[in-house]
Structure formats: structure tokens, C-alpha cells
Design brief:
The protein is an alpha/beta fold. It has eleven helices and 18 strands. Strands 3, 4, 5, 6, 13, 14 and 15 form a seven-stranded mixed beta sheet that branches. A five-stranded antiparallel beta sheet has the order 2-1-18-17-16, sandwiched between helices. Strands 8-7-12 form a three-stranded antiparallel beta sheet, with no helix packed on it. Helix 4 links the parallel strand 4 and strand 5.
């Protein structure tokens, strides 16, 4: 019987395809013996962890274990937000906070309102806000015979989810995003023993925050990180009271609690008034929300630091509110004012489609990983990192990642695993979730993409990042 050449070649191709798929499935299902032994020793079920380790540019990974299983990536989700932003906006992109005059300025006095129009600047820290006010004074403004008007309409605040995972609404990591956001709306409450008393102060000082010190000095050893200090927060329309209570042994030394206890507009007003009066200025009115009207005079435009620097702050220190502001900025750039998180997610998804990146089961939620519903696969995250590795903004992304064992959120982990600068990892952590994703350069000058997503079962022991650390050590032992 004569063999048909086309059928013969098709059959051969099918055999090769089946072989490749079998190899891929085997890599997916089988862990290297040392890693399987490690999980067993730590009491971790192999089904609760996904691992993908591959050399950059290689077609077959070194390890691919449950790489297509959707898991909660925690803060490694920030990689998607920052990578998309670097490509869509560019590392030199800047936000512009604008000041408008709703009135006339004569001899240093504004007869009318001062309007602050927020741009969504994620890193408008107190030092930069102070600089903005100094610029206002330098341009001849001293007295404001009107109100401070906050225009935060660039983002739709009603569309922002303010639900928290842990019920700790005043924790700084739960601060909601905002178009007008100064210093993350964060206050440092500093408790310091002095002789037989304690001093409690707020930083930065603000005219809208009242601290009540009801802490009792208690001799003895320090019990717990915060020495038994509790905060009771009472919000009013124009001010906030924080009552600091507890029995505090001086042996605890100084304690600093960072909290976000005021609404954004109240915080801005309080800090503005305090700094403005320190500079010799005055404000006759109060604060209210509003918009910059077409007839208002643009008086000052204050640029942010560039996006490349913003991305470093987000990834190194895992700043949630900055990442959420960045996602909303993507929405605003493509949809205009009243931007919503879902619009930002749609922008990122369209970008992924154009890059040919299929992130199966992706659920961004808020772009920061601060959600129980967020989902990514290890393969999707690895594909994203490999795309960034070969991109025009690769240097900015790599520089933004924590140096494992040295700085940022990875400073306490992976010490003595690699030479400084050779292991750059974004970390992620929630209750029962530990994740890492980033780049590793081994002593043989090979560059690896490493993703480990672990969603611990309630019956498993708490391992922290110890398992991740040992897996990375195993990678560095390969020759």
C-alpha cells in the first residue's frame, strides 16, 4: 500500500505536538525532588502553591508547578498596574496639581476663593505640599479672603470601594485613593516617655486634628509592640478627635503609630491652614468641595515627580493607595474626569490584548492586590515579567523592585541568598497568602524569572516567606 506523503507528514507533526504537550504537562505536574521534599518538611500541600521558574527567553521552564491555577497574588498585582502604566504613560509622565483664583488678587490679598484642583498625584507628600505653598507665597499671595476649595472630581469617589479586609479602616494601608491626596492623608501619632509623663503629638501638625492624651504611665516591662496603646477616633464635620489611651511603661521607649484618621478634604485643609499661617499667610474662610470654573484664573501649576520614580515607591514599599491612584490615572487619561476603577482595569486589559498577553483568570479589583477576590496565575505573572524584561522600560521596572535582603518590602527576607542587586523581588502578603515575583541573576550570569504564589490552607503551619526563600536558594544551587 502506498503511503500518502501529506498524510504521513501530518501524522508525524501530530506525534511531535503530542510529545511537546506531554513534556509541558509533565513539567506542570512534577516538582523536582528537592522542592517536593522541602514542601513535605514544611507541612505544605503541593496543591496550595504555584511555582514558575524560567530563564528569560527560554521556551521551557525549569519548574512549572500548578502555574495555571488562579491564586490571590496579593501585592504582586502591583506589577501589572506599574508595568502597564510605564508602557502607556512613559517613565517621564508627570501629574500637574493646579491652583486657581476665584476672585481678584491685589497687594497680596485674594478677594475670593483659592481652588486646589487635584490631578491624582500619588506621591504628593508633605514636603512637596510645603513647596507648593512656598511657591504660592513667592508669587505674591499672602491673604485669602475666602475659602479653600478642593476640586477632586478627576476621580469618581462614589465608585471607589472603601471596604477593608481587616476592619481596620484607619490603618494607612487601607487609605482610599483620591484625586486630591496630600501625604496619603497619613498622620504619625508619636508617643514619647519623658521623666514621669508621656507626650503625645501628631505629625504633620494640622489645625483640624485634636489629640487627647489619656495615657497612664505604668512602671514595668514593655508588653507588646505598641505597649498597650489604643486609639479612639471621633469624626466631626470640620475636625477629628483622637483619644490616646492605655497604660504605658516607659521601657517601651518611643512608639509611632501611622494612621489615616481624617477625610481627604479635612486633612488637606488642616495641613494647609497650619503651614500657610506658619508662612505668614492667612485664610479667612473654611474648606469646601467644588470645581474649578472656566472663568477662574490659573495661578500655579505644580508638577509631580516622574512616573519612573513613582513606580519605585509603589513597588519597593508596596504602597497600596499609590497603586490605586495610578490605576485611576490610567482611567482618567483615557476617559476623562470622574474616572472609575473599572475603567482603569479596562485600559489595562486592552493593553494586555495589544501585547498578546493572555493573563488567564485575571481579576484586578483595585490594582493593588488589596482584595480577597484578586486573581492571577503564576504563568500569567511570569509572562508579564518576561514581556517587561525585554521592553524599553525594563531598566525602570527592575530598579523599582526591592533588592532582596537589602531594601523595601524584601529587606528582611532572602538574605545571603544572592549577591546584592542580583535578586529583585516584589513581595505580596495577606492573611494566608505569601507571594513573590521578580528577577534573579545566578552566578553563571543567567537571568531567571521567578514567581511563587502560596495560598496557605488553614490547616497548614505558618511558613511566612521561608518556603519561597528555600526555593530561590535551590535555584541558586543549580549549575
Amino acid at each position: 500500500m502506498k503511503k500518502h506523503p501529506i498524510i504521513f507528514r501530518a501524522a508525524a507533526l501530530l506525534v511531535c505536538l503530542v510529545s511537546v504537550l506531554a513534556t509541558s504537562n509533565a513539567a506542570q505536574a512534577i516538582l523536582p525532588d528537592p522542592l517536593a521534599k522541602l514542601l513535605n518538611e514544611k507541612g505544605i500541600s503541593p496543591s496550595s502553591i504555584s511555582i514558575l521558574i524560567k530563564e528569560a527567553g527560554a521556551s521551557i521552564p525549569l519548574v512549572s508547578h500548578l502555574a495555571d491555577t488562579p491564586r490571590n497574588p496579593a501585592s504582586t498585582m502591583k506589577l501589572l498596574t506599574t508595568i502597564a502604566a510605564l508602557d502607556l504613560l512613559g517613565p517621564s509622565y508627570r501629574w500637574e496639581t493646579k491652583i486657581y483664583l476665584n476672585g481678584t488678587l491685589k497687594a497680596g490679598t485674594l478677594k475670593g476663593d483659592l481652588v486646589l484642583k487635584g490631578s491624582g498625584d500619588p506621591w504628593f507628600v508633605i514636603e512637596r505640599f510645603w513647596k507648593l505653598l512656598k511657591n504660592l507665597r513667592a508669587q505674591g499671595l499672602k491673604h485669602i479672603d475666602g475659602d479653600l476649595v478642593i476640586d477632586d472630581h478627576l476621580f469618581d469617589q462614589s465608585a471607589i470601594d472603601t471596604h477593608t479586609l481587616d476592619g481596620q479602616a484607619f490603618r494607612a494601608y487601607n487609605t482610599p485613593p483620591g484625586a486630591a491626596l496630600i501625604n496619603f492623608s497619613a498622620t504619625r501619632i508619636v508617643i514619647r516617655p519623658a521623666l514621669n509623663r508621656l507626650t503625645v503629638r501628631a505629625e504633620p501638625p494640622t489645625s483640624t486634628l485634636q489629640i487627647k492624651n489619656k495615657v497612664r504611665v505604668l512602671p514595668g516591662a514593655c508588653a507588646g509592640r505598641n505597649g498597650g496603646i489604643t486609639l479612639a477616633i471621633t469624626a466631626h464635620s470640620n475636625r477629628t478627635e483622637v483619644t490616646v489611651s492605655g497604660q504605658y511603661p516607659p521601657t517601651c521607649g518611643e512608639v509611632v503609630l501611622v494612621r489615616s484618621v481624617q477625610p481627604h478634604h479635612q486633612y488637606i485643609y488642616g495641613v494647609f491652614r497650619h503651614l500657610w499661617e506658619e508662612m505668614g499667610g492667612s485664610l479667612a474662610g473654611t474648606v469646601r468641595k467644588g470645581t474649578a470654573a472656566p472663568g477662574n484664573t490659573e495661578f500655579l501649576s505644580f508638577p509631580s515627580v516622574p512616573l519612573g520614580q513613582i513606580v519605585t515607591y509603589i513597588n519597593k514599599f508596596s504602597n497600596n493607595v499609590m497603586s490605586r491612584n495610578l490605576l485611576l490615572t490610567l482611567a482618567a487619561e483615557h476617559n476623562g474626569a470622574s474616572a472609575k476603577p473599572e475603567q482603569g482595569i479596562a485600559v489595562v486589559q486592552r493593553w494586555l490584548n495589544r501585547q498578546g498577553l493572555e493573563l488567564e483568570a485575571l481579576n484586578m479589583i483595585n490594582g493593588a492586590g488589596l482584595s480577597r477576590q484578586a486573581r492571577l496565575t503564576a504563568r500569567g505573572l511570569a509572562d508579564l515579567l518576561e514581556h517587561a524584561y525585554y521592553s524599553a522600560f525594563a531598566s525602570e521596572l527592575k530598579a523599582s523592585l526591592p533588592l532582596a535582603g537589602y531594601d523595601g518590602s524584601a529587606r528582611r527576607y532572602f538574605r545571603d541568598v544572592a549577591t546584592k542587586g542580583k535578586l529583585r523581588l516584589k513581595t505580596g502578603r495577606l492573611k494566608h497568602v505569601r507571594a513573590i515575583a521578580g528577577f534573579a541573576e545566578t552566578p553563571d550570569n543567567r537571568n531567571w524569572i521567578v514567581v511563587i504564589l502560596h495560598h496557605r490552607r488553614s490547616t497548614e503551619p505558618t511558613a511566612g516567606f521561608a518556603v519561597h526563600e528555600n526555593i530561590v536558594k535551590w535555584l541558586y544551587s543549580q549549575r
